Amino acid sequence: MKRPLEIVAFFGFLKKSLESFNKVQRIKYLILRFTKTAPMSLFGKVKNTINLLKSVDLNQLAKISQTIDLPEAMDALGNLDERQMKGLMKMLKTKKKKGQHNLPPIDGDFYNLDLKLTTEQRELQLKVRNFMEDEVKPLVNDHWNRAAFPFEVIDKFKKLNIVGLPYEGYGCPNLPFLMEGIIAQEIARVDVSISTFFGVHSGLAMGSIYLCGSEEQKQEWLPQMQKLEKIGAFGLTEPEGGSGVSQGMETTCKFDGENWILNGQKKWIGNATFADVVVIWARDEDSNRVKGFLVRKENPGFKAEKMEDKMALRIVQNAIITLTECKIPESDRLQKADSFRDTAKVLKMTRAGVAWQAVGCARGAYESALKYTKKREQFGRPIASYQLIQNHLVEMLSNLTAMQTMVFRLSELQDQELLTDEHASLAKVYCSMRMRDVVSRAREVLGGNGILLEYDVARFVADAEAIYSYEGTKEINTLIVGRAITGYSAFVN
Ligand SMILES: Cc1cc2nc3c(=O)[nH]c(=O)nc-3n(C[C@H](O)[C@H](O)[C@H](O)COP(=O)(O)OP(=O)(O)OC[C@H]3O[C@@H](n4cnc5c(N)ncnc54)[C@H](O)[C@@H]3O)c2cc1C
pLDDT-based confidence at 102, cuts 50/70/90? Predict the structure, then answer.
């Protein structure tokens, strides 16, 4: 049994050692301490377990466990004697240059929201993060530059089983909305275009079918879309109808006794150049009500033309859709969509995800900027050591942390079925404004390199502009919240 002073000294030493180590070293060190401090009191074991849990970065641990068998390694380490352990510890310490000190790890989750997730949820988050970093990140700058979509990503995404995450049945995982948000953040943290592709397919298109489709329609489409065998798009916006499309929708549908005939144009429709099915919203010429249709790509009256020369989300294949006497059977009309209120239900469900995307975009930019400032030296010192640069970094982090905690609560409300339009709108407005501030500061601390694709920040700066406008602009979402809190609608009728 150790005496109290020795225990205090032990934890003092442990704490000091941990503070000076990066996360991988901490894991290794704690594994060592675990195996070498037997026999240990129950108190010691509990305390060590807590310390281990606090300091383990599961992301790193997951990576390490892919290359070594952790339980076996722990067994082996337990057999080392004191001298061997000291040697190993020496090896684990990073060799420092003269005058250099160990730098803290780069982690945009400053308030450790990840600790609020279950082990399975955290594992899924890290699986998506590793996938994005290892398999998607190497592709994005080149594709962004060429305005091309990396189709190979679709096949790779299949193994993650994250499509249609919150839906029940039809092969969907049925996980909390919180996880859908966490995953949107993880994808956008690496690339906003890919997260938009994913959000349009899994959120807007599948969500329309899930909320507004008949049982037969759900059975036909959702299982195939969940497996990414069929890709979806969502067509609401029109060349002349953006924010006000609910009132000024020009795309029409008319039942001719046998089929529905659709005419009109849609603009900005993501994934539409290659989607198998596009959910098209159109105004019924007879009832004046908005209805939804599942338009298949092979339909002769359907044409999708890629929009060129965008300065944001260049990977996303946005299209102008033209519908000319496009014949749709009644069986492909969304059976539970009979007014714009039904369209709005879909948008309410997905708007929270867009707020999470804004968080992911800001997080990606902040982490890239922080990394850069630690490496980049001017006047003989890393620029991260200058007060004015630290001011930018801390402003970025405070914005990011406020955004993260806000969307976390937003998703909790959604999971408790308490989410209102104004909840989602407030988060969309706030997060997209803060995101713009974060990406512009990130661009600033990179100096000239902030406008080069190679450093990633330029892409976040450009892509943030699309998030800022889609799924409800700042003005429209502000009007929604303003109406909710004052009781007066400031929308023009
Ligand atoms: C990259 C990208 C991807 C998109 N993907 C899709 C998609 O997949 N499917 C889809 O259907 N749509 C999509 N959209 C369309 C998007 O939802 C619209 O761009 C958005 O709703 C705004 O419409 P608008 O661009 O026509 O702007 P407008 O509605 O013309 O607005 C112009 C300006 O006027 C302001 N404004 C408008 N009305 C008011 C008012 N009453 N009071 C005060 N200010 C007002 C707006 O806030 C904005 O600042 C996408 C857009 C982009 C940029």
Answer: confident
Alpha helices (H) in 384-420, listed in sequence order: 387-415
Q: What is the mean pLDDT of the chain?
A: 89
Q: Is 301 exposed, middle or buried (0-12, 13-18, 19+ CB in 10 A)?
A: middle
Strand partners, 428: none
Where in the chain are the domains? 5-93, 233-340, 341-486
CATH of domain 233-340: 2.40.110.10
pLDDT tens digits, one per residue of 63-89 = 656 556 666 666 666 666 667 666 666
Burial of 133 (0-12, 13-18, 19+ CB in 10 A): middle
Pick the atom of ligand 1 nearest to 236's CA.
11
Task: Grade residue 368 by pLDDT with cuts at 50, 70 and 90.
Answer: very high
For ligand 1, say whether the CB of 311 is within 6 Å of any of its atoms. Answer: no
List pLDDT tens digits, range 145-178: 999 999 999 999 999 999 999 999 999 999 999 9
Measured over all CA atoms, what is the biggest interatomic distance in the chain, rounded to whole angstroms?
A: 90
pLDDT in tens, 125-138: 999 999 999 999 99
Residues 165-198: b if buried by 16+ CB within 10 A, e if exposed:
bbbeebebbebbbbbbbbbbbbbbbbbbbbbbbb
3-state secondary structure of 292: strand
Q: CA 73 from chain center: how many Å?
A: 34
State in Å: Cα 263 to ligand 1 middle.
Answer: 21
Q: How crowded is the C-beta side of 273, counted as CA atoms within 13 Å? A: 16
Helix (H) or strand (E) holding 329: strand 318-329
Report CA(35)–ligand 1 centroid distance (Å).
59
Which phi and psi angles does 270 have, rounded to 5°?
-65, 140
Find out whether the beta carbon of 269 lies less than 6 Å from any atom of ligand 1.
Answer: yes
Ligand 1 closest atom vs CA 266: 11
Using CA positions, which residue lies closest to atom 44 of ligand 1?
Answer: 475
pTM: 0.84
For 110-125, what is the mean pLDDT? Answer: 96
Test site for ligand 1: of 469, 491, 492, most ligand atoms within 8 A of the Cβ: 469
- The CA 472 to ligand 1 mean position distance, Å, reads 6
How does pLDDT run across 210-257, given as a tens digit for each residue? 999 999 999 999 999 999 999 999 999 999 999 999 999 999 999 999
- Mutate which of 249, 309, 473, 474 for ligand 1 pocket (most atoms within 8 A of beta carbon): 473
Q: Which of 264, 289, 275 is nearest to 209 (CA)?
A: 275
CATH 1.20.140.10 fits 341-486, yes or no: yes
For ligand 1, whether the C-beta of 470 sits within 6 Å is yes
- Residue of 196, 204, 237 best suited for mutating to test ligand 1, as the one with most atoms within 8 Å of CB: 237
